[in-house]
UniProtKB/TrEMBL annotation:
It comes from the Bacteria. Keywords: ATP-binding, Nucleotide-binding, Transport. Residues 2-224 form the ABC transporter domain. The lineage of its organism: Bacteria, Bacillati, Actinomycetota, Actinomycetes, Kitasatosporales. Signal peptide: none annotated. The keyword Nucleotide-binding applies. This is ABC transporter ATP-binding protein.
Length: 225
């Protein structure tokens, strides 16, 4: 489903160039949660940006559902991000003035889905993440864990093939973070999507199907326990 081959990304040129990725290769199957671990500066966010079509590599390739991202122009990458990829951020990324249901509906609004269809799916997704009774609340009225659940529901809005999550539990306490990761794993399996999750928390890696470690821009892969 996701194929990364000899992926490289450098910033700058000459002796001052920074080589963030130095030949990263791995694959992730449908319905699988892959954890990316590594110290700060190891290249996790750079890798997620490349897989998500937010950046272009210096070398190597990324395929999503058989499509080489390098073959897409900017409009093609935009459509890919809108229709096939859901993003979950450490800071939740919710719009404060919108309700939980309205936040979940934003990606569907970008696809110009009818209002009734948006509303029905938003409520169904909030029920999926355990927030059926919170559809009318705004982010400021929700706990951090609840906000991240809304963010996961929003990531699923357009039935993506891939969910990309960059330190999704970084602003949560350990117990809440684990419950969010357990939810994400359950959603991945029930919805049949692939998830790439950057995290540095060993407890959360236990919930992954596989772990890919980044060190100095290179990867080593290990089976999750």
């Amino acid at each position: 489903m996701v194929l990364v081959e000899d992926l490289r990304r450098s910033f700058g040129s000459g002796p001052q160039a920074v080589h963030a990725l130095r030949g990263v290769s791995f694959s992730a199957a449908r319905g699988e949660l892959t954890a990316l671990k590594g110290r700060s500066g190891s290249g996790k966010t750079t890798l997620l940006n490349l897989v998500g079509g937010l950046d272009t590599p210096t070398g190597g390739r990324v395929e999503l559902e058989g499509t080489d991202l390098a073959s897409l122009d900017e409009d093609g990458r935009l459509a890919l991000r809108r229709d096939r990829i859901g993003f979950v951020f450490q800071s939740f990324g919710l719009i404060p003035v919108l309700t939980a249901a309205e936040n979940v509906g934003v990606p569907m609004r970008l696809r110009k889905l009818p209002a009734k269809q948006r509303e029905e799916r938003a409520h169904a997704l909030l029920a999926l993440v355990g927030l059926a009774g919170h559809a009318g609340q705004r982010p400021g009225e929700l706990s951090g864990g609840q906000q991240q659940r809304v963010a996961i529901a929003r990531a699923l809005a357009n039935e993506p093939a891939l969910i990309i999550a960059d330190e999704p539990t970084g602003q949560l306490d350990s117990e809440t973070g684990r419950s969010v990761m357990e939810l994400l794993r359950a959603v991945v399996r029930s919805e049949g999507v692939t998830a790439l999750v950057a995290t540095h928390d060993p407890a959360l890696m236990e919930l992954a199907d596989r772990v890919v470690e980044l060190r100095d821009g290179r990867t080593t892969e290990q089976a999750a326990e």
